[in-house]
Amino acid sequence: MNRHAGTARERELRVVLAQLAAAPRDLRANATTIRDVLAGHPDAELAVFPELFLCGYTGERVAELALTLDDPLLAELATACAESGTALAFGFAERGERGERDASYPDSAVHNALAIIDAEGRLAAVYRKRLLFGAEAEAFVAGTDDVLGTAAGTAIGALICFDIEFPEPARRLALAGAELLVSVAANMAPYLPDHELASRARALDNRLPHVYVNAVGEAEGLRFVGGSRAVRADGSVALELGAGEEVAEARLTVGAAVDPAVDYLRFLR
């Protein structure tokens, strides 16, 4: 753990919050948007896009939109990261493969996933959403593992939307050594207040900065409410976006030492 005085490596991280509406079911258009944002923010170290941004949030015929990890479109995004020198986190539908779990694992399995690509164009991590919300359980197979990925010189704990409404996933990531929490979301009306509170609480619970990027626009009768934010390790908000499309850059301190008196993880039994 690098949370305490003497072991911390405090530094400032420049992060782009890309609160954008995805083009429904148009992977190519959304990949182009990602590349354009990377090219437009050459000084950023990390850019974060919403849940399922690459295909647009949907639970309909998701197998048609799902990509394996060797898909050329993901390779193009990796190349864009290397060219811009910026790491990337974005949501996509991932096609599972038999043999990952056991012989009964269905060939048609699709995960609601978060990819983290580092600034050299390497796939640093893929997190598969563990806590599926509502009808998502009919479209996606839940993941089983917590995931840390290293990008922008930072150990990133990955979360997706509903995950942040529970203290345990973020806590496990903090205990595993996360220096930054990154959550991608497609949070919809009327749940804006839930995530306003949860995004701050998960930062404060674990004394970790938290980048939360939500979707905007409408899809399949849902209205996404934005409210993306960069939260400091003390739960205060460094940057908060509104309800419309916006791309903004925030600066967060990562790796800072934590005052032992309020380092809540110390008190876990």
UniProtKB/TrEMBL annotation:
Residues 13-260 form the CN hydrolase domain. Pfam families: CN_hydrolase. It comes from the Bacteria. The keyword Transcription does not apply. Keywords: Hydrolase. This is CN hydrolase domain-containing protein. It comes from Agromyces soli. The lineage of its organism: Bacteria, Bacillati, Actinomycetota, Actinomycetes, Micrococcales.
